[in-house]
Amino acid sequence: MTTGAGQAAPGRGSGAGLSRSQVLDAGMEILETEGIDGLTIRGLAGKLGVAATAIYWHVGDKHALLDGLAERVIGELGAVSVRGRDPVTRISSVARSLRATLLERPDLVALVHRQGRIAALFQPARRVLVRELTAAGVDGASAALAVQAVLNLVIGSVLLDRQVERQPTQRETPEELWSIADAPDAPELLEHLSHPIDEEELFDYTLAAVVRAVVQP
Amino acid sequence: MTTGAGQAAPGRGSGAGLSRSQVLDAGMEILETEGIDGLTIRGLAGKLGVAATAIYWHVGDKHALLDGLAERVIGELGAVSVRGRDPVTRISSVARSLRATLLERPDLVALVHRQGRIAALFQPARRVLVRELTAAGVDGASAALAVQAVLNLVIGSVLLDRQVERQPTQRETPEELWSIADAPDAPELLEHLSHPIDEEELFDYTLAAVVRAVVQP
DNA sequence: ACCTGAACACCGTTCAAGT
DNA sequence: ACCTGAACACCGTTCAAGT
User: Fold this and answer.
1) For residue B120, what are the CA distances in angstroms to A114, A203, B70, B72, B151?
2) How far apart are CA A215 and CA A134, in angstroms?
3) How far apart are CA B37 and CA B35, in angstroms?
4) Do the Cβ atoms of B125 and B101 come closer than 8 Å?
5) Which segment of A135-139, A161-165, B58-62, B79-83 scores lowest on mean pLDDT?
């Protein structure tokens, strides 16, 4: 009733009756095995043993289907854990745990992003971060800003994960990308530039810089 | 010859002969007017007055077409400008100018992201940042890390632009999202949380924190 | 070398019709 | 209320055939 087409909750199945949640269950399964391109109305209906048009009755069109699935992902992946004693540790732990969770399902996060529901995905983390920042003595406009800064770091890190190296069909090796002219008299830097960076190290580095700036202004 | 299917460069048009670059030109036009979902092989062929199969000859299949278009975007949007005297100002100006350029065409950036070519898009900026950091006395592993940290901020900011508020079909108003329990005794914070944040201010805030951490370790 | 036409195997969506 | 079948208007892609 929140988003779908069916105006009344189907109730507990009257025999062989299909329900909205059963459709979303099956959709979720296809999404995780075949990927988002493998999820089709017809394929979903086939998996459920009904005509394609039955999907329209229970969840609406494809956009509504994706919205419903995004909502599930939000419920499943939005949770965060906090640990540590001082504010800096606790805030960092929220960011790191959320990042770790989301990195296990990058395609599901991409779906939420595609549906424009990232804000909803982050709402639990936002609440926790607000609490921690308040406890650390930060509030007002700078607290609101700080929360979003930390969360942007997380989602940016997840959306860009594994993006860095995928150079399709191109033979641009790192050796070609960087020449001695780019870093004269700095062979060590050149060496580091030509190797893929450790994404977790990068995240921790940036996070530390931001959290430090947030807590001690 | 870099990516496409045609093995020899078509040369200058022999009369009515179609060329790879003409196809990409038309593709680019459709991309900017109709969006990525409006770009189809058949529609592209129709615009050029040829059969759909002619596209396959010149650029290959749809993936190759999108790759070719991404390559164009990389060439057009990758450039950066540097201004300012001190390192902090110059590094920040690179990040801000790149962000501003990319924000004008978020859908084109999304295409580059989709095709896994973000690294290529950022290569010019990387070169400039490496130079500036070296001049500022930063090098080795921390310079490589710092460059990527700044660039991740930029792309994250662009990919998330306008994502924050899009709450589709849902009636979750900010008033419902946040209750007094989330920020007890802090009405000012609550006020800020319920309003959409200024994305540019957020970017500048985070960028300043990172650049500061980078230049003065 | 370059392009067409026909064909195949898919899509999402609508709508009248059934029970 | 719930579901089917047929139909429409699309897709991307392959392949034999033309010039």
Assistant:
1) 23, 21, 10, 11, 12
2) 10
3) 6
4) no
5) A161-165
d(CA A100, CA A122): 14
What are all long-range contacts of B144-149, with beta carbons under 8 Å and residues at least 24 apart?
Answer: B144/A189, B144/A192, B144/A193, B144/A197, B145/A197, B145/A201, B145/A202, B145/A205, B146/B210, B146/B214, B147/A193, B148/A164, B148/A197, B148/A202, B149/A202, B149/A205, B149/A206, B149/A209, B149/B210, B149/B214
- Ordered mean pLDDT values, 10 residues apiece, chain A (217 residues): 41 65 98 97 98 98 98 97 95 98 96 96 96 92 95 95 61 74 86 91 97 87
> What is the distance between the alpha carbons of residues A149 and B103, in angstroms, rounded to a whole number?
18
Mean pLDDT of all residues in B196-210 = 96
Give the tens place of pLDDT for each residue, A25-62: 999 999 999 999 999 999 999 999 999 999 999 999 99
Q: Say if residues A188 and B140 touch (Cβ distance below 8 Å).
A: yes
Between the CA atoms of B111, A125, A76 and A152, what dihedral angle is there, to the nearest 10 degrees?
A: 10
Task: Determine the Cα–Cα distance for residues B138 and B130; give it in Å rounded to an integer.
Answer: 9
Q: What does the alpha-carbon distance between residue B37 and residue B44 come to, in Å, rounded to a whole number?
A: 12
Is A183 touching B (CB cutoff 8 A)? yes
Contacts of A194 (CB under 8 A, 6+ apart): A174, A175, A177, A178
The DSSP 8-state label assigned to residue B92 in this structure reads H
* CA of A199 vs chain B CAs: smallest distance (Å): 9
Are residues A188 and B187 in contact, defined by beta-carbon separation less than 8 angstroms?
Answer: no
**Subunit contact A183:B130, Cβ cutoff 8 A:** yes
| pLDDT confidence bin for B204, thresholds 50/70/90 | very high
Interface of A with B in 73-112 (CB under 8 A): none
Instruction: Please give the distance of CA A194 from its chain centroid, rounded to a whole number.
Output: 28
Q: State residue B92 phi and psi, 5-degree precision.
A: -60, -35
How far is Cα B217 from Cα B201, in angstroms, rounded to an integer? Answer: 24
Is B37 in CB contact (< 8 Å) with chain A?
A: no
User: Is A165 touching B (CB cutoff 8 A)?
Assistant: yes
| pTM of the shown model | 0.90
Q: For residues A174 and A118, is the Cβ–Cβ distance under 8 A?
A: no
